[in-house]
Specification:
With about 375 residues, the chain is an alpha/beta fold. It is built from 14 helices and 13 strands. The chain has two domains: about 140 residues, no CATH class; about 230 residues, Spore Coat Polysaccharide Biosynthesis Protein SpsA, Chain A, CATH 3.90.550.10.
């Protein structure tokens, strides 16, 4: 009887969420459909880098050839020890709009990336700033169209949902499930609604109006948050700034991680911060992930009677339809949802336990204690 009612609840919830997500995505406008701006406002594109030699050249080639006449590119080299500095020097000699700032030491009380973004802000006086990652490939018109949309809609903050791809098909399938979980949590289509608590902050593309960013408190306000991009969006929305989201299919692309191992380590970096460094909240999140993502279909197919198995089959069919309707997903990613749920739950749990056991996190070769991250010292 417990399995039956568990199955019924998950069946109704799954169908409802699939419809809700597809409706939500239909409310998000595409970057590609926005008009180009003839006289765009001044813009600084701020990109923090640390040991990015593998992806940096491809990303810089795209950002140095954007269709935007009034901009500068500020790259913050944060204590890199590989060929990053050499690559930046070569690009700076060929592209006068590219400015390189080198950081040799990390100030106390800052995470490296957050400090780099803040230093980028201090290096310009432009009306708009785009905080972007070092592995983003931009369509030449992407930034022009995005800024034009932000100006037309009188926004203070605009994010773009990037097209995330990987050379690993298995990782792509896991990212599809992870994306569903993020969308349910963030509800980005509601970010523009001032009455909704939903917000959006994405490290690949956080476009902010300078005056709003300064009123927000700059990155000084979130200097110890590993999830700085999410926090930027949440706090700006909470403080009443105008926010919206565009979809970047074909216009803003990145290979977030190259394999499952890299993705697992990346999840571990942020997951405990998302739980606000509360072990109880982290364990609750893991249990919720197991019960709602990893276990439903395996339990229903293996232990259910005919009725329960039919419900499981319908759930799987709806997942397949969803995957086919949300590019670049593939239909068979639906079969990987249970594996993805177990994979993510394990890494969320591992991150929480390791962080508590170590008393902090390691990020980019630096250690940050929990007391520091919580602002207790």
């Amino acid at each position: 009887m417990i399995l039956f009612w568990y199955s019924v609840i998950l069946f109704v919830t799954t169908l409802g969420l699939n419809f809700y997500l597809l409706w939500g995505f239909s409310q998000i406008k595409q970057v590609s459909q926005q008009p180009l701006m003839d006289n765009p406002p001044s813009l600084s594109i701020i990109i923090p880098v640390r040991n990015e030699e593998e992806d940096l050249e491809k990303a810089l080639q795209s950002v140095c050839h954007i269709n935007y006449p009034n901009h500068r590119i500020i790259v913050i080299n944060d204590r890199s020890t590989d060929r990053t500095a050499e690559i930046l020097e070569s690009f700076a000699s060929h592209y006068p709009q590219l400015q390189v700032t080198t950081i040799s030491t990390l100030p106390e009380g800052w995470l490296g990336k957050n400090n780099a973004l803040y230093q980028g802000y201090l290096s310009n006086t432009d009306e708009w700033m785009l905080f972007a990652d070092a592995d983003i490939v931009f369509h030449p018109d992407a930034i022009n169209k995005a800024v034009g949309y932000a100006v037309k809609q009188q926004l203070d903050h605009l994010t773009i949902l990037p097209e995330v791809v990987s050379r690993s098909s298995i990782l792509n399938s896991v990212l599809a499930t992870f994306g569903i979980m993020l969308m349910i949590d963030m509800k980005p289509w509601e970010a523009k609604n001032p009455k909704s608590k939903a917000s959006s902050g994405i490290g690949a593309f956080n476009l902010v109006r300078r005056t709003a960013y300064e009123k927000f408190g700059t990155h000084q306000r979130i200097k110890l948050r590993p999830d700085d991009d999410l926090q930027l969006g949440r706090i700006m929305k909470h403080d009443g700034f105008r926010q919206d989201v565009l979809a970047g299919l074909g216009y803003v692309c990145l290979e977030w991680y190259k394999n499952l191992g890299e993705f697992g380590r990346g999840v571990q970096k942020n997951s405990f911060a998302v739980a606000n460094y509360s072990l109880a909240q982290a364990i609750f999140n893991v249990i919720n992930m197991l019960l709602s993502v990893a276990l439903p279909m395996p339990l229903m197919f293996i232990f259910g009677d005919t009725t329960i198995r039919i419900m499981a089959g319908i759930m799987l069919l709806f997942h397949m339809i969803y995957m086919m309707m949300v590019p670049p997903n593939k239909w068979w990613y639906a079969f990987m949802i249970p594996f993805s749920g177990f994979f993510l739950a394990w890494h969320f749990l591992k991150a929480s336990i390791l962080t508590v056991a170590r008393g902090g996190i390691y990020w980019r070769d630096s250690f940050y204690s929990l007391k520091v991250l919580k602002g207790e010292e």
